[in-house]
Amino acid sequence: MSQTTRTLDLAHWQHRLDTLRATHDVPGATLAFLVDGEVHERASGVLSRATGVEATTDSVFQLGSIAKVYTAALVMQLVESGALDLDVPVVKVLPEFATVDPAATEVITPRLLLSHTSGLTCDFHIDTGRGDDAIAKYVEAAKGVAMDCPPGTAVSYSGIGYVVLGRIVEVLTGLTWDRALRERVLAPLGLAHTMTLPEEALPFRAAMGHLAGEDGTQLPAPVWDMMPRAAGPGARVLATAGDVVRYAKAHLDGGLAPDGSRILRPETVTAMRARQTDVPDKWTVSADGWGLGWTLYDWDGVPGYGHDGAATGQYAFLRVVPTEGVAVALLTNGGSSRLLYADLLRELMAELAGITMPAPFAPAARPPAVDITPWAGTYKREGVVITVGERNGTPHLTYAFVDGMVGYSPDLEMELVPLSDTVFAGAGGGASFAEDWMPVVFATLSDGTRCAYIGMRAAPKVA
User: Fold this and answer.
1) Considering only CA atoms, which of 189, 231, 224 is closest in space to residue 208?
2) What is the arithmetic mean of pLDDT over 420-432?
3) Which entry of 44, 48, 59, 65 is annotated as an active-site residue?
4) Long-range contacts of range 410-415, CB-CB < 8 Å, 24 or more positions apart?
5) pLDDT, tens digit, 9 for 90 and up, residues 259-272
6) Which of 179, 229, 278, 451 could tie 134 with a disulfide, CB 3.0–4.6 Å?
7) Each residue of 356-382: pLDDT tens digit?
8) In this structure, which topology does domain 8-360 adopt according to CATH?
9) Is 65 an annotated catalytic residue?
């Protein structure tokens, strides 16, 4: 780790946060960064444009999928204690666990779940209630959900997988996932502004997500939180940006808590960021690979880790540079959050860690000529059908929600602009992707199946 002490102009970074937040029409944002062992926090804008309540450094935001790296720590604690083996099939711990493919059920392990290589799909939405049995009921209900691909053949982002991991935590600790996280991670680290249940946010200033109206204006979302309790292990932790960075600091400190106790051993912390798989779609969440919970990055040879998260109109970003002891968290509540992240962190990471971050995903001014024919056809994963072909002589894609996802959103129609033979930029994908280009990546799995990656989820070709 670099021992060079940096001179920080905190007023400059407040100005850049204010300026870039306004430029990208983000209603409110909080920023925290760890440098030279000290956490610095900044806030800008409002928590809700309806109320005008100011965003402050003690405001809590929904972290979305960053919840997964908290669940991963709980799982690795169980590995340390000998209660869990990462390479023993899940059914040995959860006999009730099942998939639609009995052969897959027998070989899916916690390691595959942690690294998103189990083949389990992502988008299975069901509200199993608010009781302490919510996660158990979810795992039972998910038995009939389709697989994206055979276990171990590809990375495919899976929310279901992390709910299953949450259930493993419950069974082996005798606690609910929420309580296990609170007692085994949050309390030891002194993270008093981190929580999992919506009612726990009531004592705090909580951010409201915003969505674009018909005229593009950012308006408060119709609901604050759409997540059922069962989604917690993969999608619901609420926190301040400062607390997110303090969680990252515990990993940089080899699992050490501020009081000298440990939440994890140093070798476990190292194992969590060891590469388990490469990622064909390197743009949706800026991933180059995946570890045991962590997204892995390669910034021109400088390794990093972190995670992205999204909730209802809220977007969160965490980046860690272990060689420099630097961690940065940016929490936002709407607007072009990804562009704010790209601009602000490009500047901040360059100063704090000497990192050159990649430019936002976009095609070249003069795209190469690519024949879409080898990839034309129909691709399907749970709740989604993707149709690839040509329309008016131009590569085109239709993204349709089906089965249990019907009504989630109108079908997305987009032109595909090539970046290479396998990577395309989706244009005109609707409000969800209005702020930038949507990566569409084609790949061939290890078993020969062709698939389309959208949102880091693999959809196998079916016709």
Assistant:
1) 224
2) 76
3) 65
4) 414/438, 415/391
5) 999 999 999 999 99
6) 229
7) 998 888 899 999 999 999 999 999 988
8) Beta-lactamase (3.40.710)
9) yes
